[in-house]
Amino acid sequence: MTTPINPQKLSMLNGGNLLNNKYIDSFLRSRWYPGIIQYPTLMIFMLIMFQLILGPEAAHDNFGTALTWVLWWPLIPIIFLFLGRFWCAICPFATINDLVQKFVGNNRPVPKFLKKYGVWIIDALFIFITWSDHVWGVVENPLGSGILMLTLTTGVVVSGAFYERRAFCRNVCFIGGLSGNYARNGMLSLRGTPEICATCTVASCYKGTDQSMPCPMFEFPKTMTSSANCVICAECIKGCPNNSIQLTLRPPTKELWFIRKPKIEEAFLSAVIMGIVFVQNVTMLEAWNPMLRWLEELVNTTSYYVTFSITFLIALSIPVGLLGLTSWIASKFNKVSLVENFARFGYAIIALDMAGHIAHNLFHLLAEGGAIYVTGLGLFGLATHGMSTALVGMDVIQFLQFALIVLGFLGSLLTAYYIAKNNSVSGKVWATFIPYAVLMVVLTIMNVVLFTLPMAMRM
Ligand code: SF4
Ligand code: SF4
């Protein structure tokens, strides 16, 4: 039987504690952090909302659309990779939640069903929002984007008014679900020092102190094994009387090798994200319209609701079905049930998900990035018609996209291998790993094919 990898040994791969750096430590402990980033972000959000709802009707003239979909959406998966879920510490929705809570909060406990089914609710919302974006044109329509933001704002206002801490961010927000999955793959990790926490009875990292807030995400650094819900808000760093908190760098994907209690809903989300990346790419291909005409003839309707829903369902079913099929094949070798294999190895797809997500949005960032400047000048009434929005050529973008997909593939392959190795009860590491290696090759080829085809602009 193969010896599982010892997480302690692998911790040697981690960098040292970043809090040993006096500048990082004093910045995070300062009473200005995270407000100094949070409140300017809230101001920018208000400008975006104003533009989306009252600004130019055409997306390519709207500064709010450019900042949201050309800058913010492509940048957040990159932030998750380097800084974990830090975005959620400064997210305007979280800030609104905190402000509402401060003034009119009832601080009721989070309902049990939200705690139990939160990730499934996030899965369903994520699928619904992607579907509605395509059928109602949320991204292409500034007002549609504004309504989406207002809906999320209503959600956090209600949640902040009734429930304790950041109940919405932890249990309902679809961006939070995505960021939770990606933060596991990320390079930043915050944990308590086991030897120090073992003798601690105050738990002020969780409960808060006079100088610090309770952990807004209901995390307890003493027992935390995942970065999925830590937003690096530093409240626990300020609140711990024993200087136990460590902030370390780690190799990307490392947390995914040691998931102790895999959850099928999180594995399902990682497969669904792959399907969503497929659907985003397919609908932006120049070949999409001819495909749509063909589908209309096949199902004998021109209703976009019907034709898109069929395409959407197929795109989501492919990675979920392939993961299910692979898990069934692996179960023949490792004698673990299909469901358990599905839950364990679903996490291995996250690296490829993230690479596909960044690669897809790199097109928007680099081919349309100039739209931020162009629409920004438009705010001051300066005419910019005919100005190019491309920051670099398509050949550079495609090279970067393929490089990302290769890195994502290697990350997923490595993760599948370590999951097989660390959970081997029958010694069948390679027999378990090989079907998943084939799955990663298939998903990678599908991504590569999609990225070789010409894409249409968003703005
Ligand atoms: S992080 Fe600090 S406050 Fe929290 S359990 Fe450990 S020692 Fe106690
Ligand atoms: S664990 Fe610490 S840094 Fe992470 S969300 Fe909770 S209080 Fe903030």
Structure description:
This protein is mainly α. It has 2 domains: 13-255, no CATH class; 258-452, no CATH class. The chain has 21 helices and 2 strands. The chain has helices at 7-10, 22-29, 35-54, 63-83, 87-90, 92-104, 112-136, 142-162, 167-171, 174-185, 194-197, 204-207, 235-239, 264-283, 288-299, 304-334, 338-346, 350-368, 370-379, 394-422, 429-452; strands spanning 188-192, 245-249. It has a two-stranded antiparallel ribbon. Helix 3 (35-54) packs antiparallel against helix 4 and helix 14 (264-283) packs across helix 16 (304-334). The protein is globular. The termini are far apart. The model is unreliable at 1-14 (pLDDT under 50).
Small molecules in complex: iron/sulfur cluster
Number of helical segments?
Answer: 21
Strand order of the largest sheet: 1-2
The global form is globular
Helix content: 55-70%
Pick out the low-confidence regions: 1-14
> What share of the residues does DSSP label as strand, in percent?
under 5%
Mean pLDDT: 91
Overall number of domains: 2
Q: Alpha-carbon distance between the termini?
A: 55 Å
| Total number of beta strands | 2
Structural class: mainly alpha
Spell out the helices and strands N to C.
Answer: HHHHHHHHHHEHHHEHHHHHHHH
Largest sheet composition: 2 strands, antiparallel
Radius of gyration: 23 Å
Summarize this entry quickly:
The chain has 459 residues and is mostly helical. It has helices at residues 7-10, 22-29, 35-54, 63-83, 87-90, 92-104, 112-136, 142-162, 167-171, 174-185, 194-197, 204-207, 235-239, 264-283, 288-299, 304-334, 338-346, 350-368, 370-379, 394-422, 429-452, and strands at 188-192, 245-249.
